[in-house]
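Table S7 (text form). Paired inputs.
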Amino acid sequence: MSSSDHPVTGLGPANRPLPPIKSVKAILFDVDGTLADSDPLHYIAFRDMLVELEYNNGIPISEEFFSAFISGKHNSEIGVLLFPDWDQQRRDRWLDDKEAYFRRLAAKELRAVAGLKRLADWIVEKGFRRAAVTNAPRPNAEQMIAAVGLTDFFEHLVIGSECERAKPFPDPYLKALEHFGVSAENAFAFEDSPAGLSAAVAAGLPVVGITTGNPGPALLAAGAAFLIEGYNDPALWSKLEK
């Protein structure tokens, strides 16, 4: 395989610390698991639909399987992993149905990560540019952003499937930086999955890892500067209020 067949990793230093706040011009957010703890709903949707399909002889997938092989990955990658013998059209139809099921669950049960409004208000007060950068399909991303009350907060939304390459490649984050005309040295990101972290780190961004759905050691191994449990976490505000 050529190097273009693999995610670009190592373009930005792993575990790079956040830049001084006085030099920050933009803050970028993943959506699933970062704005709202949506991974449990994705897990339910995948679990239920795979059982209906009698995947794995009808034995429900575990949360560990979901975290290791599904969370944070683009649907095109997930489809090949789950259904290597299916044609792409059949994979796409099944995944579209899964996303519709997720949206029905999210409409009733989605909740913002604690402290999100506090952080959003602080970012607006500072005048930083802000974008959402996600592998979620556009209807999912727009629904989740609306559900947590941030439709008017985000100035730009980057969808992985609308880029040349989705996460874990850096393209979505590079596209957001280019949109604002901002260097990675003057920005940072929030991510909750190893795949998303790999993308942001590869784009040269420092990244705050949020442990809503994935284990902290995996996020640190993927390049997180430090970890938080939510946006009220003192570890975050000790950095922001320096």
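Next pair, protein 2 of 2.
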Amino acid sequence: MSEVRFRDSIFARLVVWAMLVSVGVTLLLWAVTYTTLDRSSRAALVRAVDVDLAGMADIHASGGQGELAKRIEDRLALATDDGNASHYLVADNAGQRITGDIAVWPKLDARLSEAGYITLSGNVPAYARATQLAPDLKLLVAREYGYDSALARRISWAFLAAGGLAAAVVGLLGRWRANRLARRVGRINRAFREPDQPSLEALEEGSAETDEIGELTRHTSEALAHLRRMVGAHRETTDQVAHELRTPLMHLDNRLVKALAKAQDEDDRRLLSDARAEIRHVIALLESLLDIATSEARKGDRLGLSPVNLSQLVNRIGELYADSAEDSGHVFTRSIMPGITCQGEEMQLTRLITNLLDNAFKYVPAGGTVRLSLEQGPTLSVSDNGPGVPEDERDHIFDRFRRGRSNIQAGESGRRHSAGLGLALARAIAERHRLTLNLVPSPKGASFVVAPETKS
């Protein structure tokens, strides 16, 4: 199993959601701010034009057309502080200009005191209102609003920039915190994957935090420490049981050897030899069961593993079986890629390979072919052209005490003392090394493949 990539991490998704929420809130606030500014500036624009128009109408009413023209010239000569200049036009009913700086009367009805947005010369946008001052005299007051729009845009862009910066800060801080949380969770995952001493020590260092992950780390550390104690106690107990059983059996075997040396009758010698064979079978059975239990208890545990030149190991084993294959009348072929290494225990890997080869030679009659191959991966396969595994036994071929059926007479004696633990032990050793052992389909015979576990 590989490390979780950041983009697949739940913390990464939380950071992305936080950034999306920040961006969403920023856009919402920007929309509200822009709308509010736009409405306020437009209302102020309308109010300014109406007040100016009312003032000009009062000037005309009190001072006449001459006074109105003078006041318009005065106002046009003044520079505005807000950047939105006012413009005026006094014209007759035909639209001919009398005074003011607007050249052409727009499409606004003075009799209705109509207002609207117009474009002045030079493509300057403005808001204007017209009114009828006298039967043959009308007034237009306009005010630019481009400065207000530009100001609103600048404020909006500043708001968006600040919001984007805030989202970026949230993302950076969130990623920093997410990476820290991911490293803390990663220590827990590594301790489960590789419960060796360095992983447990790293786990204890991370248990000082007082938050939820710190509490989870403490519970994980305590649970794994308890599990290691239980596994150690189990291993010690099985070793003691094995010793207590193996010792008297070996003593009994020695007594049988002495009795066999003294026996004169051929029947007695045969019975004593059979008894010795049964004792050795029981010892081998006991050792196999202990090896299976030990391998299963240490499944995935990297402690005690070291680099093994698998190509050299398989070559050595292959050479030994090549000699015995000639004696048994089998054809033994090898295809071993050089330079393949792996982390493992050499003795255990040796037992895995020899169990598979023993199983193949046991069930393949003389004249049959056994093939041993090693490829990059590492992928090891042992296949043959023998009778194969019956369909109803394929799902249970790796079960303990499961012995295959065959009608080949030559193999019956070889299987008489088989306990059915060879393939079970081989699979347990494979899993201890994070490998898989499977019976794969083949056109003829049986084919067993050892390959790395599929990463998830």
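Residues 405-417 have pLDDT under 50 and may be disordered.
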